[in-house]
Design brief:
122 residues; mainly alpha; Arc Repressor Mutant, subunit A; 5 helices; globular; disulfide bond; COX6B-like; Cyt_c_oxidase_su6B; mitochondrion; CX6/COA6-like_sf
Amino acid sequence: MPADIQVPPSSQQRFTEYIEKNGVSIPHPDSKEWHTKEAEQKAKDRNLFWAAPYDARFPQVRKQRHCFAYYVDYHRCNELMGADYKPCQFFQNVYKDVCPKFWVEKWDELITEGRFPAKFDR
């Protein structure tokens, strides 16, 4: 059954989980700790990083269409299948990984105003 699919958590969810579980803080982005081999190996061992999988529909470098498609897919999935349908989380993880935050904020505003250029009920 598709509802039983295990969707991997996004990088943000993994970081939050790791911080809550271990009580550590993430170093500042300018910190030299990020650029050591030991820190990189620890991060790989903890499996903290998640990246959106390659999608052959979007081979270009620019990610506008990729971002928009997954944003619409997420909202369409929620509309058609319901908010508690677990595979919809995958679309959300991908668009959060690919899209700049200000795009998502603008699209959320357009949805609330009823001016978003896509339909979610089809």
